[in-house]
């Protein structure tokens, strides 16, 4: 699934005033319709209500998911209580659009794949701004420019941006290496500039041989298991994914199939699952490729130096 963001923004960053668009741009409305028709759109409650006020109904020929914190919010459209929940509901779609407002845009810009932006040639008064802070993470791929006319009160630029592919060296985060031999191996992999978890790049020995293989995942023993574990397996997606919302229903189903197998195979009464996704700086991973840890702690507390198993996350503090 591709998560796209679509917005019209003035030169001073304004996207709205009193819950409404501060301009009339016929060409932008046509572009919006052309891009979103037949798709799922995710909208915040206030943006949804402004559409209802303007049109008297939800957007036609589109599936609308309204995101709100209100537990008892009533709508003829689907209701979700977070962007993540809305994305999960639409995860089998080819492309899903976030259409506002500002708070939802801010969340979507962290995980989105594509941005359709209309730059409006005005410094419009308003009270709502487009929260685009990390422009360096995006690459412009298309641009069209239009003059003002009787249907467009301002000149506009239609821009398309794609999230930049990570620099090759960023597939590996050395800060999260826990052991010296792990650090040596990871330094070597980092020099190759490839993702070692992608199936076409896996090297036997660097990634241990699978104990379970499916269509969408392989599960392998962790080469550097956490101390004081009885079982520590790692599930690696068979394609390069980074975020939860990229996983399909079939991929989730296969995880469940593996867990059922592992519980029987390793006689597991209790354990824990940890999914590392997103930015390795904060998720604790050494490899920037979504993966799952299945961990079963060793119950023998009499082992020398025994400590509880800990799943490290978060950026490392600077060394003093």
Automatic annotation (TrEMBL):
CDD domains: DHFR. InterPro entries: DHFR, DHFR-like_dom_sf, DHFR_dom, HIT-like_sf. Pathway: Cofactor biosynthesis; tetrahydrofolate biosynthesis; 5,6,7,8-tetrahydrofolate from 7,8-dihydrofolate: step 1/1. GO terms for cellular component: cytosol. It comes from the Bacteria. GO terms for biological process: dihydrofolate metabolic process; folic acid metabolic process; one-carbon metabolic process; tetrahydrofolate biosynthetic process. One of its GO terms (molecular function) is NADP binding. Belongs to the dihydrofolate reductase family. This is dihydrofolate reductase.
């Amino acid at each position: 699934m591709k998560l796209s963001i679509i917005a019209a923004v003035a030169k001073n960053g304004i996207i709205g005033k009193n819950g409404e668009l501060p301009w009339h741009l016929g060409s932008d409305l046509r572009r919006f319709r052309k891009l979103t028709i037949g798709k799922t759109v995710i909208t915040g409650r206030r943006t949804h209500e402004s559409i209802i006020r303007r049109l008297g109904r939800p957007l036609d020929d589109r599936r609308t998911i309204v995101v709100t914190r209100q537990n008892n919010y009533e709508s003829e459209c689907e209701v979700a209580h977070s962007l993540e929940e809305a994305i999960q509901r639409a995860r089998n779609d080819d492309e899903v659009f976030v259409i506002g407002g500002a708070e939802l845009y801010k969340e979507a810009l962290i995980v989105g794949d594509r941005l359709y932006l209309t730059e409006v040639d005005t410094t419009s008064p308003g009270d709502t701004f487009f929260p685009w802070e990390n422009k360096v993470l995006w690459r412009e791929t298309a641009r069209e420019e239009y003059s003002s006319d009787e249907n467009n009160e301002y000149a506009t630029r239609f821009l398309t941006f794609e999230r930049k592919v990570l620099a090759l060296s960023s597939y590996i985060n050395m800060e999260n290496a826990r052991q010296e031999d792990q650090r040596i191996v990871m330094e070597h992999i980092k020099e190759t500039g490839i993702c070692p978890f992608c199936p076409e790049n896996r090297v036997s020995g660097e990634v241990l041989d699978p104990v379970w293989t499916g269509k969408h995942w392989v599960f392998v023993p962790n080469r550097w298991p956490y101390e004081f574990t009885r079982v520590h397996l790692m599930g690696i997606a068979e394609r390069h994914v980074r975020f939860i919302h990229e996983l399909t229903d079939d991929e989730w189903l296969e995880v469940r199939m593996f867990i059922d197998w592992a519980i029987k195979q390793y006689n597991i009464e209790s354990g824990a699952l940890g999914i590392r996704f997103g930015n390795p700086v904060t998720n604790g991973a050494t490899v920037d490729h979504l993966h799952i840890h299945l961990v079963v702690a060793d119950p023998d507390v009499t082992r020398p130096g025994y400590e509880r198993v800990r799943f490290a996350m978060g950026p490392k503090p600077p060394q003093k």
